[in-house]
């Protein structure tokens, strides 16, 4: 249990920069997910916290102690690896007891603790088994028990669920969440799977091209993304190209590829100039179809039609209908460009291919990004 | 019903038969050696006129032969230990070296002794060891044989380490095992069979090596191949066959041990 501070962390392999300028304070007892596409530097960052990689520059402190120059075996961190890295020549119990053995705990004590850790992850009956004979999910549990057995300052999880099938992965996410709430230890979890991050995390750190782009609560990074990369990476959205035609003290007027002029209300003076190219993001959940609300998230909002100034609407033709179980997704052609919208109730008000469809939304819900990806404050 | 053989079957049979013939042809001399070792007569002839264990008795009564035998084992064990240490640490170090700059130098360097003719190596080493005062010692022959055996152990270990899951080493460090303890508790148990195979290979290399031993040995450190050569120059008697039979048996024994060691785990997995 402790607070970890990464300060200006950088890692270079020859000419390639794997991690750049990563600074973050990981709070005591929180579960932080580092989320990003492969090659974004999230695993390298985790391995630097573990001491398995040495940073090229920057510092790492655990509870005010600078551990940057401490090797992995002197740090009280513990890692669950992607392939679990169980020792094949040792029994399950010996695997779990290994870290305690290295810490000089007597045989009786460490076996007792190892047994209780195995109980904790529901692997109580497997102590004498050969780890190579276990299933993926079981190996994952043993690896977790082995790492938790040493009572680390921080538990580091390097995509340990990515090799499990979907169903098992989802069960393990819930279980991991429960274990974390139970132990109140600091966890840092690396994943490329946004659903996993949203299920597990107290806070999410989004990484891209070696940089930590944004750190925040899950709803904060989703609803208030710092740049276009995050908006595109998290969930599905429609990006619409637009050009600023006019700005006023409380709105930005844009001309879009949809063929209509849209109004984006702002809180104060807009920080864009006329003629600036923008990309608008219209999430499917802000779109209502023919006046009905789309996803349930949008249901609690004011009826769009009554909000005069911010109201926007376009009409297009349904090109494709994709049935996705709980939702139906429409691919809509509007003035030659394509957008998609979703309706939650698959059974009612269905549209077919070729139907006209009207999409409406509240201009307040639209996000806008400049060509360099930065967010426009509206 | 006429049975017609498929082209592939015919080709396979022809190949197998030819291969067997080649194998027999190459192993035949060994068979001759073993048979002549049981000869009663005082001269080497095949097939022997009568059979006895006379020359085996002679071997065990000869202090010279027993001495050479002990020397060979001693030097063989010394070579196996030293070559294993160098080969294992070299291959291990190269695996840990992430940018592989070490390997670019080490790999060709390790091969050099195999490329130099043993005669040249023998003479050079003789002069060198005289300078440093090691002439006539066991150490001089062990060092010479190690030059040859290390590359073989090194390449065996490269292949063994390439199959090792290096994340286990990370896991060991991560759980608090320092460099020595992680090697002993995690790396070694996974590669010990490979190390044994490498060591046995080094032992056999040393046991058979003749040219460098000829230059470097003194009467008190004579190895079996050197003594056999000096004896043959005097008289071609079945003693040479007896000694050769022993060498063949030791080599075969080492191969069997190596085969058992590498397959034991596999075998136990199959049986369980």
From TrEMBL, chain A:
Record localization: Cell membrane
Gene3D superfamilies from the UniProt entry: 2.40.50.100, P-loop containing nucleotide triphosphate hydrolases
Chain ranges of the ABC transporter domain: 4-234
Q: Which InterPro entries match?
A: AAA+_ATPase, ABC_SmlMolc_Importer, ABC_transporter-like_ATP-bd, ABC_transporter-like_CS, Mo/tungstate-bd_C_term_dom, P-loop_NTPase, Transp-assoc_OB_typ2
Q: Which residues cross the membrane?
A: none
Chain segments carrying region Disordered: 291-310
Keyword NAD belongs to the record:
no
Membrane topology classification: Peripheral membrane protein
Keyword annotations for this protein, in alphabetical order, are: ATP-binding, Molybdenum, Nucleotide-binding, Transport
Instruction: State a GO cellular component annotated for this protein.
Output: ATP-binding cassette (ABC) transporter complex
| Highest taxon, organism lineage | Archaea
Which top EC class applies here?
A: translocase
Fetch the SUPFAM superfamilies from UniProt. MOP-like, P-loop containing nucleoside triphosphate hydrolases
Molecular function terms from GO: ABC-type tungstate transporter activity; ATP binding; ATP hydrolysis activity
What does the record give as the reaction this protein catalyses? tungstate(in) + ATP + H2O = tungstate(out) + ADP + phosphate + H(+)
EC number of this enzyme: 7.3.2.6
Query: Subunit structure, per the record?
Result: The complex is composed of two ATP-binding proteins (WtpC), two transmembrane proteins (WtpB) and a solute-binding protein (WtpA).
What does the protein in this record do?
A: Part of the ABC transporter complex WtpABC involved in molybdate/tungstate import. Responsible for energy coupling to the transport system.
The UniProt family comment states: Belongs to the ABC transporter superfamily. Sulfate/tungstate importer (TC 3.A.1.6) family.
Report what the protein is called.
Answer: Molybdate/tungstate import ATP-binding protein WtpC
């Amino acid at each position: 249990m402790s607070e970890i501070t990464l300060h200006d962390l950088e890692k270079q392999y020859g000419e390639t920069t794997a991690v750049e300028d990563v600074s973050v304070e990981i709070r005591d007892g929180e579960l932080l997910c580092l989320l990003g596409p492969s090659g974004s530097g999230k695993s390298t960052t985790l391995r630097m916290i573990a001491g398995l990689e040495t940073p090229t520059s920057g510092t790492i402190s655990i509870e005010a102690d600078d551990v940057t120059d401490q090797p992995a075996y002197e740090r009280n961190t513990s890692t669950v690896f992607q392939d679990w890295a169980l020792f094949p020549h040792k029994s399950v119990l010996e695997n779990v007891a290994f870290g305690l053995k290295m810490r000089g705990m007597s045989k009786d004590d460490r076996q007792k603790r190892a047994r209780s850790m195995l109980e904790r992850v529901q692997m109580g009956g497997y102590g004498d088994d050969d780890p190579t004979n276990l299933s993926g999910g079981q190996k994952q549990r043993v690896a977790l028990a082995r790492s938790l057995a040493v009572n680390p300052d921080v538990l580091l999880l390097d995509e340990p669920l990515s090799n499990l099938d979907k169903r098992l992965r989802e069960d393990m996410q819930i279980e991991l969440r429960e274990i974390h709430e139970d132990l109140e230890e600091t966890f840092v979890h690396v994943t490329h799977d946004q659903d996993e991050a949203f299920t597990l995390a107290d806070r999410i750190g989004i990484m891209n091209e070696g940089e930590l782009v944004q750190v925040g609560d899950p709803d904060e990074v989703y609803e208030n993304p710092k740049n276009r990369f995050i908006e595109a990476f998290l969930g599905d959205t429609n990006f619409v190209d637009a050009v600023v035609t006019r700005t006023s003290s409380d709105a930005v007027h844009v001309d879009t590829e949809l063929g209509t002029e849209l109004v984006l209300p702002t809180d104060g003076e807009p920080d864009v100039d006329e003629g600036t190219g923008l990309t608008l993001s219209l999430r499917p959940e802000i779109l209502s179809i023919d006046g009905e609300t789309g996803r349930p998230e949008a249901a609690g909002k004011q009826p769009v039609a009554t909000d005069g100034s911010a109201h926007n609407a376009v009409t297009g033709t349904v090109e494709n209908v994709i049935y996705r179980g709980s939702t139906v997704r429409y691919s809509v052609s509007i003035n030659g460009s394509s957008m998609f919208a979703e309706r939650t109730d698959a059974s009612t008000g269905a549209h077919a291919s070729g139907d006209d469809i009207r999409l409406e939304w509240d201009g307040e819900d639209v996000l806008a990004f400049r060509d360099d990806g930065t967010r426009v404050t509206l | 019903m006429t049975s017609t053989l498929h082209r592939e079957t015919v080709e396979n049979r022809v190949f197998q038969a030819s291969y067997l013939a080649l194998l027999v042809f190459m192993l035949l001399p060994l068979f001759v050696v073993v048979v002549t070792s049981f000869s009663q007569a005082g001269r080497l002839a095949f097939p022997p006129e009568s059979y006895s264990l006379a020359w085996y008795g002679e071997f065990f009564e000869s202090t010279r032969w027993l001495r050479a035998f002990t020397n060979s084992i001693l030097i063989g064990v010394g070579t196996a230990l030293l070559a294993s240490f160098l080969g294992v640490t070299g291959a291990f170090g190269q695996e840990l070296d992430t940018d592989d700059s070490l390997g670019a130098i080490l790999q060709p360097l390790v091969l050099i002794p195999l490329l130099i003719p043993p005669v040249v190596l023998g003479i050079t080493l003789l002069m060198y060891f005289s300078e440093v005062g090691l002439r006539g010692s066991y150490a001089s022959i062990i060092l010479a044989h190690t030059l040859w055996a290390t590359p073989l152990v090194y390449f065996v270990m490269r292949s063994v380490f390439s199959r090792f899951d290096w994340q286990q080493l990370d896991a060991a460090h991560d759980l608090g095992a320092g460099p020595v303890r992680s090697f002993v508790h995690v790396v070694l148990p996974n590669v010990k069979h490979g190390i044994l195979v490498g060591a046995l290979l080094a032992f056999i290399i040393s046991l058979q090596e003749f040219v460098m031993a000829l230059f470097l040995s003194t009467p008190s450190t004579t190895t079996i191949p050197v003594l056999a050569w000096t004896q043959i120059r005097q008289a071609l008697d079945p003693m040479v066959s007896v000694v050769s039979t022993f060498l063949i048996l030791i080599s075969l024994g080492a191969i069997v041990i190596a085969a058992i060691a590498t397959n034991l785990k596999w075998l136990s997995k199959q049986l369980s």
